[in-house]
Amino acid sequence: MKRLLFFFLLSTSTQAFAQDDAAAIRKLLATQTITWNQGDLEGFMQTYWKSDSLLFVGKSGATRGWQKTLDNYKKGYPDKDAMGQLAFDILEVRPLSPDHYFVVGKWMLKRKVGDLSGHYTLLMRKIAGSWKIIADHSS
């Protein structure tokens, strides 16, 4: 009986932390939207792990590294018109462990030069108390 009670309490507390973490991750994605829509790629990239091990997979293949990912964003979106207005539709935020989450969603860009949209999967990791994107696959 004590064991059952222990697992019940552990499950309940884990669910509470998971809800807080999911809310923090949704807030991070809202921050991404705001900074992108302000034309601030540097601010947008603050949500990513600032490491050479960051993995970004897009239509051109895999890229490793925070700086290389930023450089690719700057090349693909050289000005605010090219960036357009970003919106996310978050489809799933799933805990994998206390420090890792899997996120699935859809991205949409409204632009004068033509709208774009696609889907993304993110691997999030809590680093020094903050959630960061450590792997991004956007298509």
UniProtKB/TrEMBL annotation:
<dbReference type="Pfam" id="PF14534">
    <property type="entry name" value="DUF4440"/>
</dbReference>
<feature type="domain" description="DUF4440">
    <location>
        <begin position="25"/>
        <end position="133"/>
    </location>
</feature>
<dbReference type="InterPro" id="IPR027843">
    <property type="entry name" value="DUF4440"/>
</dbReference>
<dbReference type="InterPro" id="IPR032710">
    <property type="entry name" value="NTF2-like_dom_sf"/>
</dbReference>
<protein>
    <recommendedName>
        <fullName>DUF4440 domain-containing protein</fullName>
    </recommendedName>
</protein>
<feature type="signal peptide">
    <location>
        <begin position="1"/>
        <end position="18"/>
    </location>
</feature>
<keyword id="KW-0732">Signal</keyword>
